[in-house]
Specification:
This protein has 427 residues and is an alpha+beta fold. The chain is built from six helices and 18 strands.
Length: 427
């Protein structure tokens, strides 16, 4: 009797195995569960940390791995901690998985068009989130009735601004963005004596002073000791406790970041670096002091200041009327509405901005965010706070949802047609 022949299946190559893992349904399931877990933990942790710090910790591109810190998870007085991957990279891996598995590896043909369209819509939604992560800018515009403005103020980014004062007005303005300042943590360096050790339990070791070239000015600027939230304190009122540098009788005290990041008041130390190689005395720049440092070089006057970044808009907005209504016998607002005029190249367009009804134009979206002063009930004395959002992918999520819905409906229709055809053929 002849022996049965056997065939040995060759193992898949390494690239094929990697492709199978990255495009597999198992990886998709794990990633979706991880995203659900990250969203749930972030929702819990933002109560203690605040919204913006939590988003940066959980979903920023710089966060590859992190450790959740939740009081509700304390066990026996010890905080339970465990590492998790950053949400940004989980979404990126999910995009790769959906593209390889839902588009490249998926079955082709007219019977599967709906699946392909639906997966494409989900991929487009992830791309929209990535574009918003990198390109979205948020700020606010405060207007009183009759006031016109074309400038928004960033919520969180502080900048150092150097300008020359001519006829009482700043000219030739040079702005140092916050991304070039955030890593300048205080430390002890040479004669500066920024800090010699930890302050308020926070590590203050790190960078060296950074020189910023100002070619249009007769000096450069050296900055260090950046604090995201700080308070200038008079040395005569309270002596420095941690060898802080005293400048003009004041020194900076680091404060814990506020839960609402927009409430932080940044501060730093700076000094002028003259063209002849000499350096001026250090001075303090503090957002909490509401005034900058005046520098004189001969007959020329310069101003060095710190404030939240301003960004111009392509048109002006004028507040015509602000209306607020309150619940009976309370100060709780039921609604507040801004009637505005958009002025663009001499053309005026009226619009109404209220809760859930923003104004959109040229890539900018205006939301009715708040009002002030708090406690005031006379609309004539109030000002309106409009949130301004610049996001190229603002409407992309809506488009992606429409694509997914169309794909699902098409797939259902194709299945229905196939089923009816099969029943008729069998009959």
């Amino acid at each position: 009797m002849e022996a049965a022949s056997t065939t040995t299946k060759r193992p898949a190559s390494l690239p094929v195995r990697i492709f199978n893992v990255l495009s597999g349904f198992g990886l998709a399931t794990v990633l979706l569960l991880l995203l659900g877990l990250l969203t749930w933990l972030a929702t819990l942790e933002q109560v203690e940390r605040g919204l913006l710090p939590t988003l940066k910790k959980y979903f920023d591109s710089s966060s590859f791995f992190f450790t959740p810190e939740l009081k509700v998870m304390n066990v026996g007085g010890t905080q339970l901690k465990f590492p998790l991957p950053g949400g940004y990279w989980v979404c990126l891996l999910l995009f790769v998985n959906l593209f390889l598995g839902g588009v490249i590896r998926a079955r082709k043909g007219w019977r599967h068009w709906g699946n392909l369209i639906s997966h494409s819509g989900i991929l487009f939604l992830i791309v929209a989130g990535g574009v918003a992560q990198w390109k979205e800018v948020r700020g606010n515009m405060v207007l009183q009735q009759g006031q016109t403005s074309n400038v928004a103020q960033d919520y969180t980014e502080f900048v150092v601004e150097v300008s020359e004062i001519k006829d009482g007005k700043p000219t030739n303005i040079h702005v140092i963005r916050g991304e070039h300042l955030d890593d300048l943590q205080p430390q002890a360096i040479g004669s500066w004596k920024w800090f010699a050790r930890k302050t308020s339990g926070m590590d203050t070791t790190g960078s060296t002073p950074r020189d910023f070239k100002l070619p249009d000015f007769p000096f450069d600027l050296q900055v260090n000791g950046w604090m995201s939230n700080s308070q200038p304190v008079a040395a005569v009122e309270r002596a420095p406790e941690n060898q802080e540098l005293i400048a003009d009788g004041y020194y900076l005290v680091r404060k814990e970041d506020e839960k609402q990041a927009e409430a932080n008041l940044a501060g730093c130390y700076a000094r002028v670096m003259n063209r002849d190689g000499t350096a001026g005395e250090p001075f303090i720049l503090a957002a909490a002091s509401f005034h900058g440092k005046t520098v004189k070089v001969g007959e020329r006057v310069f101003l060095v200041d710190i404030h939240k970044r301003y960004w111009p808009m392509p048109y002006q907005v004028r507040l015509n009327k602000f209306t607020a209504t309150f619940a009976p016998n309370t100060m709780k607002p039921e609604s507040f509405v801004s009637e505005v005029t958009r002025i663009d190249d001499g053309h005026e367009v009226n619009a109404t901005i209220q809760m859930n009804e923003p104004m959109r134009n040229k890539g900018l979206t205006f939301f009715q965010a708040s009002y002030g002063p708090q406690g005031e009930r006379d609309p004539a004395k109030m000002y309106s706070v409009l949130e301004v959002v610049q996001n190229p992918s603002d409407q992309w999520p809506k488009i992606s949802i429409a694509i997914v819905a169309f794909g699902l409906a098409l797939q259902f229709l194709l299945k229905l047609v196939t089923y009816i055809h099969a029943r008729l053929k069998s009959a």
